[in-house]
């Protein structure tokens, strides 16, 4: 990609925004180098990296911070030659290892994605990092307990300092009259007293310094010279011990130079990826799809550098029905933004950045994106606006090929309109013959006519509201734009006679062309109204269906409640009847013993108890529910089940489960019951086959190995295809041939989309030479 085009389309500003989301200097450095790629595999990988980072941020609730990741190349070079690092360098290494440990913990997840490997390769060197943190407190301070020797040295130093302070405090009192101030000072690391110059002979000791006036001498008393010398020796010992500790820590890092390099590279790469994710979140962006045939369809795309609360989304398509799009309309109507948006989003997509557009948007992959936008006038090179533009266009025509995207703003402007329009048409026609994907803006009516007359070229316009004299910034593909000069002039108060004279000066053909455009615009507005009305009706139908579904659900609940209440009441009646029967039996037993008819009565009593027990068993089954619940997924038509909510009535399943319900036939009655109220008894009863087939299935005797869908629209073709696929699969065909023709490719795409969702389709491909090429799809069944 040429840097000039990246600058014209303001890709560098997107990179600046990206750098702002990186949390480390190393990450920002990597973000600054982001450029569009041309390898589709890498593009898709980088896009998925961004998507996976966004998923992790959503799952964790926040992004991972990489603050503290710095370039350690110089330190690692010193380690390579076994040199010791400074305390500051060790702290920077520790910071990187700490971030690596935190990142590794952040990366732990049950879900594997494209970032899993990077997180797993991090080596936090936990033990070494812990030791560095324990020993090195700051760039200038090492912990006392960094080693036993250092701890011992510093204890002795404190003891010596205590003795010095004790001695010096006594001297302060003794020499108070000879001192400038009653304080203990330090000179060259030694403890001194500030003595008046006239009393220097009265204080025995070594002079280390003199004040600027010469009135004060800083004298180290002889009684503390030995102690000061001891401290100096201890300081030297401490310094050597610190050097040994630092050297030991450095030595422990030496075997892990490669791990440290990998950590830095992975962390700054992850910082860049998470910066892309945060940028996407800030834009409300989505991951686009990519086409290898240079097809663009971005839906509700928003220019990322315009305030997202003010920008008007546009939908742009290019590369299927037409390879050249001509955008017309008045100035400040949004033509340039409509031109820049697909160009900038293409660059962003190829750089692994998500784009501010709907998630089903598709971008082409181009080797180069060329742009001629803005005023290229150059005083230094003595170039006019037209000359500057033409110089750029000459370069574009020389470099552009089939894998290029070309964008031209006001092509042919800046010179005589007749010659400019002719040049513009010739340039566009040249690119069109080369099948270069091109978008151009213009004011010239001749180019509008060129677009109308030329196959593979399409008009578009930026909508303008004449009533309010304001652009709506909506891009309308398929309709050439009007300049609206007469209407705008009239609204602004230009006299009617001036406008009438102006109209008389333009040709009859031009006036008729503008009338045709106006009629197209009116037809579009009417179609838009019809579309909005149809969408309103669809919403109303959907709401009505939802209300009916809720009402049905409520009725089912009420039905269940009524049935439950009735069954509970029946249980109560049965209980009362049992109690009454028990009491009656007791009384009869007494009478039977007295009359001698107890055997006959006992027989009747047993019959009564059996009847009661039968009803109790049914009620108990109803209340407890099924002892062997059945999974809705395992339920099949023909299964024998018990309906526990109806007292264990046996029935046969006559439909598959839907919304938790299933139809069960019990005798002559077919009822809708809850799956949870069913208890499985057995599978479908096997019926003896009336006829046995061997070898080829009967269906295979009549099914054709080919289906022809040519002439059908998508809505008619897909149901026909689905039935054929079912028949072919049941007939045990190994493969089938689908004839859909070439056409616009819409039917082929619909067929391929449906084949991807059919579970018993093993694979499919376009026909080879002699099989119908890309007008035929060959399907293989599992």
Fold and architecture overview:
By secondary structure, the protein is α/β, with parallel strands linked by helices. It has a six-stranded mixed sheet, sandwiched between helices. Strand 3 and strand 4 (216-221) form a beta hairpin. The longest helix is centred in the last third of the chain and has 88 residues, at 508-595. The radius of gyration is 45 Å and the shape is flat. The model is unreliable at 377-383 and 688-697 (pLDDT under 50).
In short:
The chain contains 21 helices and 23 strands. Residues 377-383 and 688-697 have low confidence and may be disordered. α2 (11-21) crosses α11 and α20 (714-730) packs across α21 (746-757).
Topology:
Elements: H1 3-8, H2 11-21, H3 25-31, H4 40-60, H5 73-80, H6 87-107, H7 116-120, H8 126-135, H9 148-174, E1 185-187, E2 190-196, E3 205-210, E4 216-221, H10 222-253, H11 257-283, E5 289-291, E6 296-301, E7 314-318, E8 324-328, H12 335-350, E9 362-364, E10 368-372, H13 385-399, E11 404-408, H14 417-433, E12 437-442, H15 445-453, E13 457-465, E14 470-477, H16 485-491, H17 496-505, H18 508-595, H19 598-624, E15 640-643, E16 649-653, E17 661-666, E18 669-674, E19 678-682, E20 706-708, H20 714-730, E21 735-739, H21 746-757, E22 761-766, E23 776-781
Parallel strand pairs: 5-9, 8-12, 8-13, 10-11, 11-12, 20-21
Antiparallel strand pairs: 1-2, 2-4, 3-4, 6-7, 13-14, 15-16, 15-19, 16-17, 17-18, 21-23, 22-23
